[in-house]
Write a structure and sequence with these properties.
alpha/beta, six-stranded parallel beta sheet, three-stranded parallel beta sheet, binds D-allose, binds zinc ion, L-rhamnose_isomerase, isomerase, L-rhamnose catabolism isomerase, L_rhamnose_iso
Amino acid sequence: MTKYIIDAGQVEQHNAKLRAELQADYDALGGMLARRGVDIEALTAKAQTFGVAVPSWGAGTGGTRFARFPGKGEPRDVTEKLEDCAVINQLTRATPAVSLHFPWDKPSDPKALRQQADELGLGFDAVNSNTFQDQAGQAHTYKFGSLTSTSQASREQAVQHNIDCIELGKTLGSKGLTVWVGDGANFPGQSNLRGALERYIDSARGIYAALPDDWLMYIEHKLFEPAFYCSVIADWGTSFAVAQTLGPKAKCLVDLGHHAPNTNIEMIVARLAQFGKLGGFHFNDSKYGDDDLDSGSIDPFQLFLVFNELADATLRDGTFSPAYMLDQSHNVTDPIESLMSSAVEVQRAFVQAALVDRAALAGFQEGNDVLQAAQTLKKAFRTDVSPVLAMARLRSGGAIDPVAAYRASGYREQVAVKRPPKAGASGSGIV
Ligand code: AOS
Ligand code: ZN
Ligand code: ZN
Ligand code: ZN
């Protein structure tokens, strides 16, 4: 029996108030979709299958290198982060797993943490290692890199940390390790570009060797920051080469914010999928760089186009199932509200992509009817599938309007009393 943090009766009350209105919208949309040959019931059932993992570090207020303005009732440790993640899943029914970050989330008792997650109806998605910061008491610095450091001791320490993450992840029931390193250079000449990647591959082999058979290692690329002249794993080409070199359990992870502005991310997705190396995503949105804004808040069309490629890949490859994770930083909103809305935006793109008339699109592409091909995508993107998403939530036991239900529950005010502010509360601030 799942333990619900928000009183189930309150959620029912919320739904009772909105149910009739939702049904009317749902029926109207159902009629419209039926005329297009789409069965709304099948679409809703599909929406119910969707899940995106929530980043534990997203539950606290983020920050920038200038300041962090703490929010009320921020989680102070991993168990409180899990409680917030459980609220997100209870109301959205679209976030059944949590992605942990070590050592930020290192539990004193991993078995107890797993039990807490079980009770809350949550699982653990990929665990993230952290070699972009020095930790208290650490023997060797990462100031000049971790997996690529010229210091063998720093490299070995970074490899060992990743292996420790795998061990911890095994106890928690996780099945993947995400590796993102900030390694790179700030000056031309600072590092030997090829030498740094050679060291990365050598270190990564040590991590790969410790992966259980049913695990994946996700290589996350990022164009810049904290290294501003060059990053070692800067782009999908590098991450692809590394994943290819390491073996079948290594895949590429695409964080939407880790590219130059205007990069065609959906094409990267298509390429990685074609060659069997698309492992997963960190969803967020951006205007300028690694902004870590809420998913779908700036460019929902791009998110849709990414899911359009995923839908195409699923049709072609059948078993294809990349890991979906959010990776966002919330500075001016309640993190729970942002994460709920973002999960719904990603789910929206997933459902909209399912609406694309693929036979028609293929025909227009074949006949070079460019305008109609573009319109076919736009038609799906413009369809407001909100009633499908709300109905999917209702049927799965969630809230018709998650943010409204959350606000009505008074959860934030309650935890603000239980969780007095503490400096650096989120354990993050670095995103
Ligand atoms: C850093 O820019 C990456 O997005 C990583 O995924 C990182 O581990 C995460 O954002 C937490 O800081
Ligand atoms: Zn300035
Ligand atoms: Zn990321
Ligand atoms: Zn990032």
